Amino acid sequence: MSPEAGSEVRGVGTRGAVVGGYVTDIDRASAVDGPGNRYVLFLQGCQFDCLVCHNSCTIPPPPRWMVPTSVDETLADIRSVEPFLSGITVTGGEATLQAPFVHALFTGLRADPVIRGLTAFVDTNGDAEAEVWELLAPVTDGVMVDLKALDDEMHVVLTGTSNTRVLASITSLAARGLLYEVRLLLVPGLNDSDEVLDRTASWLLGVDPDLRVRINAFRRDGVRPCARDLLEPRAEDLDRYRSVLSAAGIRQLTTY
Q1: DSSP per residue, 33-80
Q2: Residue 98 in 3-state DSSP?
């Protein structure tokens, strides 16, 4: 991808209006990507290099041959399945790397008389500049943030990147009333000790005492070869996670 194309994909402050997004896949009926039944767009490109990524094909930036999908084309497809939907979710890859497209899509959604009642959600790793959330906040109904680890060193092990902006995004989104849910990917022996869970819960409760938290239990299916020897949580592990997080004060807790 050329530097010019890259500047249009990432962040805000791009040259002119972005009329298309680099869409890797679409799920027109998902019950796990936000509230209700949702239309989900998977966008290409991610700044993390997660050890346990299940969508590693979406990590590289869009290749030169990849044709962007227009906002109008996407809205037309959403209209075709609107009777069955509660909302739309953009994910990835990392959706905020294509923030101008997301903004244009959500703006079009709100202006469309047929689909304007659908909610607009972002599923993100949280590693976004404050300017990205300033752009998206006026047209977004909710944001779901993945928190791979509260400890920065473990976050680097799991993702290759610091969690400084992730924590800042969680705090900022909560203050804006846009933080719908924080998702904790738990991998046995790495980030699932009682002490880590308790500290994570305490930090999250300090951000929002009524925060929704979802446990995402690590699964080996579909991961990279380097992660296939990692352990999956057992039933007793999941029970422990729920017990520790609940005892710490997390009241809205689900497991996936």
Answers
A1: SSSSSEEEEEES--S---TT-S-GGGSSPPPTTPPPEEHHHHHHHHHH
A2: helix
Closest residue by Cα to residue 157 from 133, 202, 189, 193: 189
Rounded CA-CA distance 180/122 in Å is 10
CA atoms of 98 and 20, how far apart (whole Å): 9
Both tokens of 9, joined, read: 């994909």
Instruction: State the Cα–Cα distance between residues 127 and 150, nearest whole angstrom.
Output: 13
Task: Please tell me the distance from the alpha carbon of residue 35 to that of residue 139, in angstroms, as a whole number.
Answer: 17
Instruction: Give the other-Cβ count within 10 Å of 248's Cβ.
Output: 16
Map tokens 């092990």 to a residue: 157
CA separation for the pair 239, 256 (Å, rounded): 13
Q: Give the CA count within 13 Å in the CB-facing half-sphere of 63.
A: 5
Length of the chain, please?
256
Element (H, E) at 246: helix 235-248
Residue 19, pLDDT score: 66
d(CA 74, CA 41): 9
pLDDT band at 55 (very low <50, low <70, confident <90, very high): confident
Calculate what percentage of the chain has a pLDDT beyond 90: 88
Mean pLDDT of the chain: 92
- Is pLDDT at 228 greater than 90 in this prediction? no
Rounded distance between C-alpha atoms, residue 106 and residue 100, angstroms: 10
CATH code of the domain made up of 3-255: 3.20.20.70
Identity of the residue numbered 23: V
- Domain layout of the chain by residue ranges: 3-255
* Amino acid found at 40: V
